[in-house]
Amino acid sequence: MPAPTLVFDGDCAFCTRSADLARRVLPADVQVVPWQWTDLAAAGVTEERARSEVLWIGPDGAVAGGAPAVALALRAAGAPWSLAGVLLSLPPLRWVAPFVYRLVAANRHRLPGGTAACRMPPPAA
Asked: Could you tell me the pTM of the whole model?
């Protein structure tokens, strides 16, 4: 992918609302697309990973997921958002952010804008 890309779950209303906010604050050259419309194989990402976490694909093709992806997107958004992205990238927030991210992701169907369709799929057996 030539441009930085934020990949989210397009079936989740909470994620879609979050992506709408991201589109408003990210620079015009950043793509914000649902994983369902993305060539995941070209990005080297599995569908399972895309279902379980937001992804940031850098212009160099490097992929970050979850809290680090959020931090990179915030940094790309510019001030004042970039300050939050920098803080999320530094200890101790960097250590706590993945736990908070997983808590939000596991409960996204309960958050404002969430629906039953936002529920995370059960882990593969």
From this structure: 0.86
